[in-house]
Amino acid sequence: MKLNSIHHVAIIVSDLEAARQFYVDKLGFAVIRENYRSDRGDWKLDLRVNDDTELEIFVEPNPPKRVNRPEACGLRHLAFRVDSVEDTVRELEGLGIRCEPIRRDDYTGASMTFFFDPDGLPLELHE
After folding, report:
1. Res 92: pLDDT
2. Among 1, 118, 24, CA closest to 63
3. Candidate from 4-8, 26-30, 64-68 with smallest mean pLDDT
4. How many Å is the Cα radius of gyration of the chain?
5. 86 and 38, same domain (yes or no)
6. Range of the domain at 6
7. Is 87 left (phi over 0), alpha (psi -120 to 50) or beta?
8. What is the helix, strand, coil percentage profile of the chain, to 5?
9. CA–CA separation, 85 and 103 (whole Å)
10. Is the alpha carbon torsion for 90, 100, 85, 67 positive or negative?
């Protein structure tokens, strides 16, 4: 079996406009398609992360809140590889997005930090 790459990551959000402002307007992901699914009563927003990866955003009315501590099974966080964590943190903070202090990954030694989407999903920057 050969699994070539990650095609997409799917997340659930509570507010379409807040998600669009964060992921499209601030993080700069391009909209591939946007669909209202009348049979489910929700929106699906597909975003281009890069040539190989998409981010599927499902907008659910009143989704259960994310479990924080202790963490539940499932997606823990979504990590983005960047050339410079320090430069990217400056850009995010310039957009009003607060980041945790930059630290070194205990195993790889690479710089890393976290920030959060409007629903509290942890997003990681990693060199």
Report:
1. 97
2. 118
3. 64-68
4. 15
5. no
6. 1-63
7. alpha
8. 15, 35, 50
9. 10
10. negative
Q: For residues 85 and 76, which has the higher predicted lDDT (pLDDT)?
A: 85
Does residue 69 fall inside a structural domain? no
Residue 127 burial (10 A CB sphere; 0-12, 13-18, 19+):
middle
Report the C-alpha gap between 103 and 114 in whole angstroms: 10
| Tokens at 73, concatenated | 């099974």
44: three-class secondary structure by DSSP: strand
pTM: 0.88
CATH number at residue 45: 3.10.180.10
- Written as six digits, the tokens of 35 are 């669909």
- Structurally, the chain folds into a number of domains equal to 2
Bridge partners, 55 (sequence order): 9, 47
Question: How many residues comprise the chain?
Answer: 127
- Contact (Cβ atoms closer than 8 angstroms) between residue 32 and residue 48: yes
Of all residues in the chain, the percent with pLDDT exceeding 70 is 98
68 vs 35, which has greater pLDDT? Answer: 35
